[in-house]
Amino acid sequence: MAERIKIQIAEDHSGVKVEFLPESGATGIIELTREQLLKLVQGLGQVHKTLAGGKDIPSLEGHQIEAVFNTRWWLQPGLIGEAAVMSFQHPAYGPVGFAIPIDQAEYMVQLLSNQIAEAQASKASPQ
User: Which residues pair with 84 in a beta bridge?
Assistant: First the structure.
């Protein structure tokens, strides 16, 4: 498939230029600040959410996931209904939050506890 846009990051990393290529059927260049780009990405995410509305959520098992490291996490005190709310700062999408039903939160705590124990055992035993 032919490229439809070209994105160029400013030398000072203050923003981007989005150029529409002939294959796109549009013409022109849009210059966006970092904040404007984030708002565009978030807006497109909302559009995607609307388009996917009512469809089954696919399983993540067996899929390659792009992990986010060295970010800021926050767990909201208290529940919203029957769910815990966790959020984090995603470098590509900005703040992302999700509600975790309590039964799933219990399972996550169990898995995380096992991983913590495994990590502690690995540190304690000489290699």
Answer: 100
